[in-house]
Amino acid sequence: MRIALVGNQNSGKTSLFNALTGAHQKVGNWPGVTIERKEGRIKGSKHTLIDLPGIYSLSPYSPEEEVSRQYAVEEKPDIIINIIDVTSLERSLYLTTQLLELDCKVIIALNMSDLLDKKGIKIDSKALEEALHTTVVEVSALKGTGIDKLIKIINENQVLDNVHLPIYATDIEKSIKKIEAELEGSHQRFVAVKLLERDPRYQKSATDLDQQLIKEIEEKYGLDTEEIIANQRYDFITELRKKVCTFGPRKVTITDRLDKVFLNKFAALPIFAAIMFLIYFLAVGVVGSATVGWIEELMEGLSEWVSGALENGGASEWSISLVVDGVIAGVGAILSFVPQLIILFLCICLLETTGYMSRITFFLDRLFRKIGLSGKALIPFIVGTGCSVPGVMAARAIENAEEKKMTVILTPFIPCSAKLPIIALFAGHFFGPNSGIVSASLYFFAVIVIILLAYLLRKFVFKGENSSYISELPEYKLPNFKYLFRDVSEKTLAFIKRAGTIILLCSIVIWVLLSFNWKFEYGVEVADSILASIGNALAWLFYPMIGHWSWEATVSAVQGLVAKEQVVSSMAIIAGLSEDVTEGHLILAEGGAFGYFNSVSAYAFMVFNLFSAPCFGALGAMKRELGGTKAMLKAAFFQTGIAWVLAILVFLVGSLLTGGF
Amino acid sequence: MSALDIIILIAVIVVVGLIVFFALFKNRKNPCRFCPYAQSCNKDKRESCYR
Predict the structure, then answer these.
(1) Domains of chain A, CATH where assigned
(2) Residue range A170-198: average pLDDT?
(3) How many domains in chain B?
(4) Who among A393, A490, A620 is closest to B40 (CB)?
């Protein structure tokens, strides 16, 4: 059997999907986490479960809503599980009334019933089942209650037949019956209602009789049929709600209290700034300063041990250098940032799962609309703090093509986890106790640049109307620690995997390019190496932003195209080969290959790496979302151009302020 | 060139070869090959994802 999971946004569909299938799909306490359908197998059965993006009705307005409508209506699943957030029963039941018009069995899963007490509401699920003539099950996807009962009902096929409950006034029901009689195929009642509503998707099959019936109804009610049908659905729901719900005195919930603070007109933005600062302060400042020292010692010890072991084994100078200066220095430089990344991933995941992210999208939506971006653009920006690839992909949920393009171009500006090693390296070395503030300042710098560029792009390039964004604010929830652990470990392992694959590969290539000259002679001075000659050809581009002719910084920054972490890895290898073998980890040590950097040029270099074209992975995602290589290349040049100009400006202003000139 | 040098060289060539193969050729047509969340993804999601 194929079973579709359908419900409003943020009603807990993915949590229920995970509970029913044992999968680990990403969930989030904010709307729009699911933008594509996902498939899994229900535990202990052969039934396929399909998790669909959240929808409010079967008249979709956005691409991801269309995915859900198409599946539920056109692909005819055997059963639909309609997940309902009981804390917003009235709104959720609107979709239910439409689903019950399909030729499909429907199970209603009343989710989040554990939150009802706090709201002083009681729902009689038995009465609801009788009133709707369909199976109703109380579940808590988060706590896992009611899941076994739901699986049992599916496995034993105890689902009540859909009787196509009449919910409209008698004359409308009669009209529906007349239209149904003309139709062939499945979902006749649903299609009949859609024809009456003048849904554009069904207008091709509209007959004269349909037009006649619509005219009669509209004349009688003085409204258009779409409005009449919607009103009658809500009338039915209101009556139903009176029958099945009892309301006690509404208690002031923790959510109400917290929202008074987090959504306060004056306090919301400073609180958001403080939270982001705290995240970077913890990740780069506290954890960074505590862990960098001992990881450096560990890497130094490992390098010495491997070097000694290989020497004793009779290895040549070049093979020792390849392993120690190439592989260990390159990969080790990246792995030393893992503790900081764990903190970053943990904090971002906490903000997502508790419901705070929704508040941020709600609060910033007003500002974003003023500058020409939809509030939906905030979701890619938030996802982009982890990795630009899913961030860019999340822009797909934006229906307005111009806004989508802008979001795709601007999302890689958000500091992703791969940029953290660059920020942590420079901020930690040059700004010491203030490294947390400096790291957070880059985040806010990125936000300001995004706002300014969005305004300019909207005004001069992507002209057009702004789209609206409707979202809801979920309850604040305590994080699910099992999910938190899984999410953080998944992201951390993905980072380590990159270090063990793409960074390892690049480290070896860089070592080869540094150890040989164009005549392929080994052991040349690094200044005469292949890499140095490539870097020297491009160093003029970087001179204005770091105030130094540096092929080393040039080639490192260019490698950010492969993976942003590679910038640090490359610097570690160049510094190691330029100096004594065992001091390869001291990238920014005075007198070393990068010893000319100062706080101003370091900040400018970080700015360049923050805003320049993202890694190949993100470029690939940009290509898909922008619709072609040409558009992607244009965007990449635009990003790199912005990065170059900003880095030079930062260097010039910084040098003027610090008396560097 | 010692035996250990040859072993290191072969190991490096094999590792590089495997990484290049899996990154560029094995999944060449897989649009998700750079996506860090591809592991928890599935065929059906990919089809709808890159429609």
Answers:
(1) 1-251 (3.40.50.300), 268-468+487-658 (no CATH)
(2) 87
(3) 1
(4) A490
